[in-house]
Amino acid sequence: MTMVGVLADSAQSLLTLPPAVSHRRASHRLETLLHKACPPDFAVLAVGLGVDCGEGRTYVPDLLVTRPEATDDDGDVVPATDVLIAVEVMSLSNPLPGLVLRRHDYGAAGIPQYWILDARNQTLTVHTNPMPSPHPDGYETTTTATPTTPFTTTIPFPMTIDTSLIR
After folding, report:
1. DSSP state letter for 41
2. Is 9 helix (H, G, I), strand (E, B) or coil?
């Protein structure tokens, strides 16, 4: 998302512009695939919920997978320990340096999987096996799914993601 700093009433706040239609469409299609595979003891969310990675770092991923009890209260932030998958959709408004920083912080916070969807190239990059800080990559293992090589996993639940269905 593109953020523009504005000054209002002598307090600094951020104005967040909505993502482009292509970004929203890709996010929705991936969300639909996740919902189809998701058993009732997990939740797929695309509601702008923040993830507290500690040390004052909170991010709002495009999608996340958690257990339903993690969202029992009306808060707008969940601890990283409750997040099983954090998903970001690459777009012109979501530059790569920000995704690299998130990969490091999500890994250091112990989020088991961090996915980056590039809808233009129809790839899904999956980072697993989080590494403790100060490891710069955040994750030990990276797999890239393409339209000819779907991503299959059993963690946190069995699913196969065919990126040819996401554009």
Report:
1. T
2. coil
Q: Is the pTM of this model over 0.70?
A: yes
For residues 27 and 6, which has the higher predicted lDDT (pLDDT)?
Answer: 27
Which residue bears the tokens 């695309």? 46
* Largest CA-CA distance found in the chain, in angstroms, rounded: 53
Q: Which residue has the tokens 């292509």?
A: 22
Contact 161, 150 (CB under 8 A): yes
Distance CA 102, CA 100 (A): 5
Residue 30: φ, ψ to 5°: -65, -40
Angle CA 115–118–120, to nearest 5 = 165
DSSP class of residue 61 equals -
- Helices (H), ranges, the chain: 21-37, 96-108
